Please model this.
Amino acid sequence: MPLDIDRFAHLDSTIQRWDPRVKIVSMGLFVFGVATLKSLPVALAALVAGIGFVRITGIPVSFIWGALKWVLLFLVPFFGIMPFTYPGPPVFDVLGLGFSMEGLRLGLLIIVKAVAIVLTAYAIFGSARFDVSMIALQRLKVPSIIVQMLLFTYRYIFVLIEEMRRMSTAMRVRGFVMGTNLYTLKVVGNFVGSLLVRSFDRTERVHKAMLSKGYDGTFHTLVSFKAKNTDFAKAALVIGTVVTLLAVDLEGFFRTAVAGWY
Amino acid sequence: MHISDGILSTPVIAGGWVVAAGLTAVCLRKVQLEEIPKISVLTAMFFVADLIHVPAGPTSVHLILNGLMGIILGIRAFPAVLLGVTLQTILLGHGGVTVIGENAVNLGGGALVAYGVWQLRHLTRFRRREVVFGALAGACGVFSSGMLMATALLLTGREFLVQAQLVVATHAVIMVLEAIVAGACAGFLIKVKPEALAGHRVARGGAAAAVGPVVVAVILGAGLLSPHPALAHKLLLDYTAVNEGLLVEAFFPDGTPARNTTMRLMTPDGKVLQQGMTNDHGGYLFPVPEHADYVADADAQMGHYAKVDVPAAALTGVTLSETATADAAEIERTVTKVRAEPFPLKRVAIGFGVLAVLGGGALLASRRKRHSELGPHTH
Model:
C-alpha cells in the first residue's frame, strides 16, 4: 500500500506543473460535482475524465490499485444487494426474487462515481509533494492549526510504523504468535499502549527542541506559489467540464426513472 | 469502517461536512500549543490502527481505536479523528474524499461517546475500574459509530435498509475485539503513564457533563433499533365506493392504519366540502352529495400528507346524500383488502446469499495470508 502518496510528484506533466492552490480548488469542485451526479452515462463520462487525469500525471495504475481495491471491497455489498432490494419493476426472478434493473443501475452508478472520485483524488494529491499540498491548503485559508496537525501526523505515521516494526520484531523474538483469543487482544492493547507511551516521550523531546529553535506556533516555509494564466486556463477547463456534466445531468437527457432517488 | 464516495445523497454529505466543521470548531476551542504534538501522535495512532490486523476466525480485521482516542484525548478526539480520516482517505483510499465529513462524524462521534462513558468511571470506586470503563468506552465508541453510519445510510434512502443492518451487525462484532483492546490499553496506561489519559482528575462540570454524549447515544440507538414507523414512511390513501358513500382509508406502507388523521373531501378546485377524523382503522366515510369529481386528502402531521383523486365514474352505485348515514367501522367489515407490503424477507435472504458468495469469492481471489505477527501490514 503506497503510504508515500507523493512518490510520483517528481514526474513532469501539466498537472504536476499546475499551481497546487488552483489545482486543489478546481479539482475539488470537480470531485464534489461528480458526487452529486445522478445519471449513469454522465457518471461514466466523469470516470473517463478521472482516468484522463491519472494518465496525464503519469502515476502508474499499480500504485493506485492499492487504494482502489479497498473502495471496491466496500462497494461490492452495495452492488450485490441493490438489484434485489431496490423497489422497482422486476425484470426477471432469481429464486422468486425480483431482479430490478433500476437497482442494478443504482449499484453501477455508485461504483462508477466512487472510482472516478478516487482517481481524481490521486491526481490531486499524487501530483505534488505532500508538504507542498498542505502549505497550499494553508494558503487557501484552512486554519493553520489544522494544517500543522496534518503535517505533524504525516511525519508521526512513518515514525510509528518504524517503531511498530521494531516492537513486532522484539515480540517475535520472544516467541509471540497471534491467534483468535483473549490473550492476543490483551497483548495488542498493551502493544498500542506502549507504542503511545514511547511516542509521547519522543514528541515531548521534539516539541522542546522546536521551542528552543524559536517555534511560536507558525510554520515558515521556503515554498512560494505563483499562479500564472495557464494555471487559470487549466482550472477553467476542469471547472467547465464539471459544470457541463452537472448541466447535462440536471437537464435529464439520460434520466429514466430516478424520481425516487437523489 | 468508512463509507465510500457516491453512495450518500447530497443533503447527507452536506450535513456531514457542516456537523464535522461545527464539532471541530467547538472541540478545538482554547487549544494550547503544547497539546498539538499529543493530538498529532494520537491522530497518527488512529491512522496506523488501520494497518494493525488482528485475527478473527478465518480472516483478520483491522483496529479502529476511536474509543481509545476519546479515552486519551477527551473532546480533542474529534478533530484528531477528522484529520486521521482525512489522511486515511488521501493516503490509503479508505472512505472517500467527498464523505470525509460524514466519516469523521461517524467515527469522531463514537469517540465523543466513548469519552462520555470513560468519564462515568468517576462515579464508581473499585480497583480495576479503568480496565472496565476503558473496555466499555471502546465498545460504545465502535457501536455508536456503526449506528451513526447506519443512520446516514437510512437518511439517504430506505432502499439501504439491508446495508444499514449489515453495518450495525459488523460493528457489533468488531465492538467486542475493540473493547478488549481498549480495556487492556487503558489498564496499561493507568499503570505506566496515568497523566496521558483524559479526565484523570474529575472535570469541573463533574460527571454530569460526561453523561451528555451517552444520553445522545442511547437516544440515537433506541431510535434506530425501534421498528421505525416514522422513518421516511409515506402516507397512502385508498378509496372504495360503497352503497352508503365514499370510504377513504389512510395507512402507511407497512399496513399500519393512520388513526386520528384529519381527512378532507374537496372539489377538484380545492373547495373543502367535508372533513373529519379517521377512526381506529384509518377510515372515514364521506356522504356523497352528487355525482362529480372529488379530491380526498389526509394530513397525518410531520410531513406525512397524501392526496387522491376520486373520479365521478368511480361513484356509480353510491346513494347520494348530504349527511352521513352509516359509520365507517360498520362498512369496513364488509370491505376487506390486503394493503400491507410485507417485509421483503426473501429478498433480504437472497441479498445476504449473494453477498456471502461475492465475499467468499473476493476472499478466495485475494488469497490473503493470515497475519501471524503483530505490526504494520502495508500490503
Summary: Strands of chain B lie at 53-56, 59-62, 236-242, 245-251, 262-266, 272-277, 283-286, 294-299, 305-310.
